Amino acid sequence: MEPTAASDVIVGIESPAAEIQDFDRVVELYWPHVFRFVLASVRDRDAAQTLTQDCLWRAYQARGRFRGDSSVKTWLFSIAVNLVRDFYRNRRLQFWKRVQSSQLELSKTSDGLQDVSPEASAAAKERLNAVWHAAEGLPERQRTVFLLRFVEEMELLEIAAATGLKEGAVKVHLFRALRSIRKRVGSL
Amino acid sequence: MKGHLSSEQIDRLMAGDAAAIEEQHAAECADCGAELARARQTLSAFTYAVRRCAEQHGGAEVPSGVLVQARQRDVTVRRLGWAIGTAVVVVLAAIPLFKGIVDRQRELQAQQDSLLLEQVNAHVSRVVPASMESFMELLAVPDETETGGRE
Question: Which chain A residues touch B9 with a CB distance below 8 Å?
Answer without folding.
Answer: none
